[in-house]
Amino acid sequence: MALRISLGQYYAADSVVHRLDPRTKVVSALAIMVSVFCIHEPAQLLLGLGLMLVVTALAHIPAHRVLEALTPIVVVLVLLGLFNLFLTNTGETVASLGTLRITTDGVRAALLYSLRLIIGVLAAMLMLLSTTPAQLTDAFDALLAPFARIGLPAHELAMVFSLMLRFIPTLADEASALVDAQTARGGALGEGSPVQRVRAVVPLVVSLLASSLHHANDLSRALDARCYEGGAARGHWHPLRMGGRDWAALGLTVAYVVALVALG
Questions:
Q1: Which of 13, 133, 215, 225 is the most exposed place for a label (fewest CB within 10 A)?
Q2: What b-and-e string marks burial along 66-96, b requiring 16 or more CB atoms within 10 Å of the CB?
């Protein structure tokens, strides 16, 4: 059993998106993810999906990697669509089943509000696939640095975020190995009653928790051995510099947000 998690997995390619400053990609991705909640019209949805298709093509990321990122949210999209479909009672009735009515506004909300989440997921996925964890750490460290003046541990937060991305694939591989080991011993997770399935998950969760604590202990020892101090000033082997393409990308993001508001 393989657990395919694209979060935190960098896809190496020579593209204009990969060459952007990581701060540009973080700011642009956050702006796009927040702006999806302003999408209430089909024209806005088409604009957002069109932008994501263009950025995906510019990033030279294969289609199967995009589909891998979208697959885990299919269940969320379906549930959200069903809620909007059956709980929205305004508009003309399209079909009825007892006390449940499907209306034109319900169909519109089910499609529009579900599909707009794809834009936010694609924005986050493209940022992660085109940026290494080290670059993301430097970007968050630089963006949060002004808040250090008011006591916010900017560098520590950036390092925690980087470690989170680093260990997600590791824990996914360990979970896959544990599931295979349980299946080989006749303890498959997908068999038996719901109660038996829940009980079968408990050893998996306990083993993953023990493995996580083991990794955390090893990491703390490694940091201590290297005399790591959270508040110490550090330089960078590759200093971050904003170029012309970065300002152009930020300008495109601003133009997208303005067009999104105008279409609304």
A1: 225
A2: beebeeeeeeebeebbeebbbebeeeeeeee
Q: Is 97 helix (H, G, I), strand (E, B) or coil?
A: strand
Q: pTM above 0.85? A: no
Burial 179-214 (b: 16+ CB within 10 A, else e): beebeeeebebeeeeeeeeeebeeebeebeeebeee
Q: Which two tokens stand for residue 20?
A: 């952007």
Angle, CA of 37, 25 and 249, to the nearest 5° = 90
End-to-end CA distance of the chain: 45
CA distances from 116 to 10, 56, 90, 102, 252 (A): 24, 16, 21, 21, 19
Helical pair 104-129 and 22-35, crossing angle rounded to 10 deg:
170
- pLDDT (tens digit, 9 = 90+) per residue, 136-182? 888 888 887 787 778 777 777 877 877 777 787 788 788 888 888 87
> Phi/psi of residue 132, each to 5°?
-75, 155
